[in-house]
Design brief:
This protein is an alpha+beta fold and 379 residues long. The chain is 39% helix and 15% strand. It has 14 helices and ten strands. It has helices at 5-9, 13-20, 38-42, 49-57, 97-116, 176-186, 200-217, 220-228, 234-239, 249-256, 262-265, 271-285, 300-319, 338-348, and strands at 69-74, 78-83, 119-125, 141-147, 192-196, 230-232, 244-246, 289-295, 323-326, 353-361. The strands form three sheets. A four-stranded antiparallel β-sheet has the order 1-2-4-3, covered by helices on one side. Strands 5-8-10-9 form a four-stranded antiparallel β-sheet, sandwiched between helices.
């Protein structure tokens, strides 16, 4: 489920410099919307212990940063999680599998945060039934907080530092011990988990995931889904702190000059589109290692568990000083991706459904992703 934050922060850089060099000052100083990151600073700052746990949960990774979670507080010790049906991704996630994985990540961080205050979280998943073809208005989970039974998890300390790092990774290999630790963290909830260092398999995965990215951005409906969710410049990000944020000095200038627009980013013949593709290829080719998690995908609970396992791996990577970045286009289930979906499963599926595929590496630290804040999720 990858975004284009860093890549498109730089799109049109040379063009912009040329355009403004006649007199306007051009600063490379990065600027980001501060208000869109306020929820990261507000985490844990609420009177109700459930809201404190939720304020951490809403920082969970999720596809295209849709943040599709709606929560109803029930009584004094429970809540119910629903999905916002308007925040699904019908073009690239037609069966809502990835959105469900994002709900699993939310529930895992909720559980970790609650345990930090001594509460055990009891979950009843899909209490009103489920449909593997689509999510609907029925509850994702009912959650009860049991006081005095929570066991603190050391991964809690990594929640505020966790990122999905979309930078170009450094050309150095990952120690086998670190890869083993990530795989072990991913084996929660009966998941099958694997990691691979800089081997021939990694080279094959670099090529396969890059071809899947090209397939997505050259499939009009799939690419348009991303383009429609782009927030171009700090002002748009502040107004809509979700979706795919494109921020920074060059983006602000390119946007004002009409170089980086949604129309250009949807047009494969435009300079913005071509430069973005070139930079994304550098990201893909920089992967020094990959990891993936799999299970039978027989129920929605399997997808929830994939999200819970994935975010535990992400938190462990943060602890180890590693960057991880979901690169899962080849796992998407729309018709144009069918051949690559089959190819990746023949390569690493081992008879199961690959739920998440991610690259691993060392990279510079990045800003947290925008969040809508707790109030936006309460019903």
């Amino acid at each position: 489920m990858p975004t284009r934050r860093k890549v498109l922060r730089l799109i049109g850089g040379g063009t912009v410099v040329a355009a403004v060099s006649g007199g306007a000052a051009c600063s490379n100083k990065t600027s980001f919307s501060d208000s869109a990151r306020e929820p990261w600073r507000q985490a844990g700052q609420y009177d109700d212990y459930r809201k404190r746990a939720l304020s951490y949960a809403l920082l969970a990774p999720n596809p295209h940063n849709r943040q599709p979670w709606l929560v109803r507080l029930d009584g004094s010790d429970a809540l119910t999680l629903f999905v916002d049906l308007d925040r699904r991704l019908p073009a690239t996630d037609p069966f809502d599998r990835q959105i469900t994985i994002g709900c699993g990540a939310f529930l895992e961080i909720l559980s970790i945060a609650a345990a930090e205050e001594g509460y055990r979280v009891d979950l009843v998943l899909f209490p009103e039934g489920e449909d593997l073809r689509t999510l609907d208005q029925r509850a994702i989970a009912r959650i009860e907080f049991i006081a005095g039974e929570g066991v603190r998890d050391p991964l809690f300390r990594q929640i505020l530092a966790r990122r999905s790092n979309k930078e170009i990774y450094e050309p150095r290999d990952i120690p086998d011990s670190a890869l083993a630790a990530l795989a072990e963290a991913s084996r929660s909830y009966s998941m099958t988990a694997n990691t691979v260092g800089n081997t021939s398999l990694t080279a094959t995965l670099r090529d396969l995931t890059w071809r899947a990215h090209v397939k997505e951005v050259t499939t009009p409906a799939a690419n348009q889904e991303s383009v429609d969710l782009m927030r171009i410049g700090a002002k748009e990000v502040a107004a809509n702190p979700d979706g795919i944020e494109l921020e920074g000095g060059m983006i602000e200038i390119a946007s004002r000059l009409g170089i980086v627009t949604r129309e250009a980013l949807a047009d494969p013949t435009s300079t913005a589109f071509k430069q973005g593709l070139e930079l994304y290829e550098k990201m893909a080719k920089s992967a020094r290692a990959f990891g993936w998690i799999s299970n039978s995908n027989a129920t929605r609970a399997d997808q929830i568990n994939a999200g819970r396992a994935y975010v535990r791996m992400n938190l462990k990577a943060t602890e180890l000083g590693l960057g991880v970045h979901p690169w899962s286009q080849c796992l998407q289930e729309y018709p144009e991706m069918e051949a690559l979906y089959r190819e990746v499963h023949e390569l690493i599926g081992d008879g199961q459904t690959v739920q998440m595929l991610y690259r691993i590496g060392y990279a510079e630290k990045i800003e947290p992703t925008p969040r809508r804040g707790l109030k936006a999720h309460l019903v």
